[in-house]
Each structure stands twice: as C-alpha cells, then as structure tokens.
Amino acid sequence: MKIALIGYGKMGKEIEQIALSRGHSIALTIDIHNPEALTAENLSHADVAIEFTSPGTAVNNYIHCFNAGIPVVSGTTGWLEQKSLVERICREKNGCFFYSSNYSLGVNIFFELNRHLARIMKGFPQYDVTMTEIHHIQKLDAPSGTAISLAQDIISEQGAKEKWTIEEPESNNELKITPIREGTVPGIHTVKYNSEVDFIEITHSAYNRKGLALGAVMAAEFSVGRTGIFSMNDMLKF
Fold first, then answer.
1. Distance CA 189, CA 118 (A)
2. Is the predicted pLDDT of residue 57 greater than 80, yes or no?
3. How far is CA 219 from CA 61, 137, 175, 181, 227, in A?
4. Which of 24, 64, 139, 161 is catalytic?
5. 126 with 83, same domain?
6. What is the DSSP string of 18-53?
7. pLDDT tens digits, residue range 68-117?
8. Structural domain for 41, as ranges
9. pLDDT, tens digit, 9 for 90 and up, residues 157-190
10. Do the beta carbons of residue 188 and residue 47 sit within 8 Å?
11. Is the peptide bond before 125 cis (omega within 30 degrees of 0)?
12. In a shared domain, residues 97 and 14
C-alpha cells in the first residue's frame, strides 16, 4: 500500500514508522513547508491518504483527496461543524472518508465501555456525570475530539444531559468537560459518575502515540478499495 502522509509532525512520523514496519511505503509527504504539493497528480501515486493536520486546513485537504479519487483517513479534530459538507462532497465524488477522533484501539474499546456504562447509569439518576481530559500543551483544540465523542455518546445513551460545556454548567442538563493542558501528556480521559455516597470512574491513559498511529494505518488498510463513510466501529465491528 502506498500512502500519502498529509501532516508530517510528531503524529505523521509515528504513522510513517508503523506503516513501513507493516510493509507499506510512503508515496507523498505534505507538511507546512510544501502545501502546494497536495495536487491530484501527486496524490495519484498513492493508494490512500492519512491526514493529521489542523482544523483550519483539514477540510480542504479532504476535498483535494476526494477530487483525486483516493480514500482519506483523518484524525484531525476541531472541524466537525463542517462534517455535513465533507460527507456530502465525499458522496458526490463517490469517495471514501474514514474519520475518528481517536484511532487508538484502546480508546475505541473505552468508547464502547463508556456507551455501555452510560446505558446502565440511565437507571440511576442520583449519579451526576462529569469528564476530564488532559493533553500536552501543544494540542490546539479544547476539549479534545475524543472528549467530545465520549460526551456525545453519554448524551445519547444516558439521556440526563442535553449538551456538553467547558464552562460551569448553568443547569443539570449540561455535561461539564474539564480540559487540562500540561507537559507532554499524550492523552488521559476520565468519565466520573458521582453521588452522595460513592463514585464510579473509568479512565483511559495513553503512554505514547504509537497506538494512534497503528489504528490509523489499520484504517488505511481497511479503506483501500472502498467507497463510503466509515469509522472505527465499522472496522472493529463492536
């Protein structure tokens, strides 16, 4: 499999190492120094693109890939207000778009656990749910895309909350997310259900970026030859 790496920071370099170790090759590398190289001609040498950039550039990167007719796997967060536009263009171009806010296999198991726990806690309104996420100081968005995914699943499954906020909640129907930026932390996400007598807490803590990189490469392997819009649930089949 020949991969176009769109975004060649720390995450892009981890993806490169994992991809090479699994027998793949890198056909194209795009970073802040050569954005003009993201052309249909250059993309034609790749089987799939893996995109980890920034919220301000991600959507245009996706469209370039759709126009070039190659699948795109993205882990960029902070752009989801344009999700309907991206999915519409993908379908119009008969393209393939694989998106996850977190490609770690462990985090996706955590997502499933979070949904299951939320369904259980629906029957116990005496517990109030809150969330905390901790990341390195270079992370641009807050809360993290992973935290938003967790919150949206709680809102959907538990039913007691209607929206999330990073401010002090104005009512009981708001789910408080506390984002913390410190050091070089790869990512810690905690969901806590608190009552007057006890609390229940689940946490996922990443040691490094390797789990994210492996999941992204696996998603690229899954996407080659497919059309449509996919997520980790499609690949992992929970």
1. 15
2. yes
3. 18, 27, 31, 28, 13
4. 139
5. no
6. HHHHTT-EEEEEE-TT-GGG--HHHHTT-SEEEE--
7. 999 999 999 889 999 999 999 999 999 999 999 889 999 999 999 999 99
8. 2-101+210-236
9. 999 999 999 999 999 999 999 999 999 999 999 9
10. no
11. no
12. yes
> Residue 107: helix, strand or coil by DSSP?
helix
Residue 196 shares a structural domain with residue 112:
yes
What total number of domains does the chain contain?
2
Residues 129 and 87 placed together within one structural domain of the fold: no
CATH code where residue 188 lies = 3.30.360.10
Cβ atoms of 205 and 7 closer than 8 Å: no
Asked if 89 and 112 sit in the same domain, the reply is no
CATH of the domain at 25: 3.40.50.720
Query: Do both 16 and 32 map to the same domain?
Result: yes
Catalytic residue check, 135 = yes
Active site (annotated) includes residue 10: no
> Which residue of the set 135, 161, 189, 204 is catalytic?
135
Helix (H, G, I), strand (E, B) or coil at 59: helix
Could you tell me the sign of the dihedral formed by the alpha carbons of 205, 17, 61, 140, in that order? Answer: positive
CA torsion sign, 196 to 146 to 155 to 231? negative
What's the CA gap between 175 and 162, in Å, rounded? Answer: 8
Residue that is written with structure tokens 């007691």 in the block: 160
What is the C-alpha separation between 185 and 164, in angstroms, rounded? 23
Residue 130 has pLDDT above 90, yes or no: yes
